[in-house]
């Protein structure tokens, strides 16, 4: 989007607002998509399995009765590792969604700054005085 | 705005929000080290399962005592999830307290609520 000519100010502003709204809708869609992420992880022997959502919240943990045979210390380490793996994978997926949304947000043109106002004032003075 | 109460002298000052933003970024960067040290802890209802998490809720450690191994595997899994919930709540509480202390006038809970409202009102 190029800075507008004076006669196109209203249309430029309308398009700018419309694109901003599209971007905000994109951010909200990304929030929903992150909420729907479900990432699973399991131990190498398949006896411990966990799932996490896109916010890193752990939503499920399954421990097979056979996993208890390894004793409390080893089981604690195994459960922690599987929970972390589920969270890390969920974080990776959520980051991917957030990066895509940020990329789209970066497409918004720079806001009009003081040079735009100065140009308009100079233009108005020129029109009045010419 | 966004979790801040403007200082009395800032009302009507057009540069105040930008200045406040820069200050917030600097204070947040300074707070990073303290945030990284936060450890939330929680226990399952039986008290035989303990979990610790970092300030983002990532699991650091899961500890079972010998009695925990007498639980069924399903109950044990439920105990772990309950302990995580408690640990995450503890880490969130510490994070909010830390940010409130590190950044005077900033309320992270109010900031998030305002951001959510702004997003909802725009699209």
Automatic annotation (TrEMBL), chain A:
It comes from the Bacteria. Pfam families: YbaB_DNA_bd. Keywords: DNA-binding. Gene3D superfamilies: Nucleoid-associated protein YbaB-like domain (3.30.1310.10). InterPro entries: YbaB-like_sf, YbaB/EbfC. The keyword Protein transport does not apply. Residues 93-117 are annotated as: Disordered. GO terms for molecular function: DNA binding. This is YbaB/EbfC family DNA-binding protein. It comes from Nonomuraea diastatica.
């Amino acid at each position: 989007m190029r800075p507008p000519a004076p006669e196109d100010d209203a249309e430029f502003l309308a398009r700018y607002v419309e694109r901003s709204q599209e971007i905000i809708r994109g951010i909200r869609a990304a929030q929903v998509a992150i909420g729907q992420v479900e990432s699973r992880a399991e131990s190498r022997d398949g006896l411990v399995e966990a799932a996490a959502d896109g916010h890193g919240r752990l939503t499920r943990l399954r421990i097979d009765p056979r996993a208890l045979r390894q004793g409390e210390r080893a089981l604690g380490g195994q459960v922690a590792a599987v929970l972390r793996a589920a969270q890390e994978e969920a974080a990776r997926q959520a980051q991917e969604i957030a990066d895509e949304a940020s990329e789209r947000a970066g497409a918004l043109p720079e806001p009009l700054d003081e040079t735009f106002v100065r140009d308009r004032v100079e233009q108005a003075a020129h029109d009045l005085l010419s | 705005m966004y979790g801040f109460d403007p200082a009395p002298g800032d009302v009507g000052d057009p540069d105040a929000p930008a200045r406040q933003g820069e200050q917030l970024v600097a204070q947040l960067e300074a707070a990073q080290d303290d945030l990284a040290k936060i450890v939330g802890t929680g226990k399952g209802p039986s008290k035989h399962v303990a979990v610790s998490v970092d300030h983002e809720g990532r699991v650091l450690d899961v500890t079972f005592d010998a009695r925990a191994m007498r639980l069924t595997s399903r109950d044990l899994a439920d105990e772990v999830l309950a302990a995580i919930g408690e640990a995450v709540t503890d880490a969130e509480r510490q994070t909010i307290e830390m940010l409130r202390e590190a950044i005077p006038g900033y309320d992270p809970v109010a900031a998030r609520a305002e951001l959510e409202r702004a997003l909802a009102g725009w699209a």
